[in-house]
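Known limitations

Files may contain more than one protein. Parsers should not assume a single record per file. Below, a two-record file is shown to illustrate correct handling: read the sequence, read the token line, then continue until end of file.
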Amino acid sequence: MDLDNTLIALADTTRRSILERLSQGPAKVTELAAPFPISLNSVSKHIRILERAGLVRRTILGRDHLLALETEPLDDITKWMQHHRTFWTQRLDALESLLRAEDAVAKAKGPKK
């Protein structure tokens, strides 16, 4: 799992838009580039970043480059986030319990003088 490359790839709105389009099915590079007000070369750079992260698979058919979405890196990110969410939720719950216990002890002792 290469979280860094996946997170870098997802950090850009153009790349997220490309992935959104690919979620509907494979597309040629030129089809992916059409809605963007940037050069085909710039879109190709974005696609290379997505490929490096393993989010896009390229198939070359003659002169056409067909791209398809690969979801495994997204699954890996989801698992990582769920693990850390559970970890921090447990830690914060423990902290909340500790603070409540301290408040109860302080109230039982009465007001400070």
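...continuing to the second record:
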Amino acid sequence: MSKNTTLTIRLNKDVKEHAAKVASGMGLDLSTAVNMFLVELNKTNKLPFTPTGPEFPDIWKDDPKDIASFNQHIGLLDDGRNYGKENTD
């Protein structure tokens, strides 16, 4: 697969350092781990895991408006109208 673009993200330094250690323990670097995540996201049109923890409340089965509100809170543009109608192209 040709790699011809760059993704730049901002994240917590501790999250990055811990993730790098976990990935390294699996024989991966962070770039490969993120690429694997994005390929799986594209193949399945959903997250390859169920978000957990205080940063991600258990709203994934809630009303689309509640999900849209959460998405807007974390900075995603979402009005809830497309929930359950993810792109399957």
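Parsers that stop after the first record will miss the second one. For reference, the second record is described as follows. The two ends are 19 Å apart (CA to CA).
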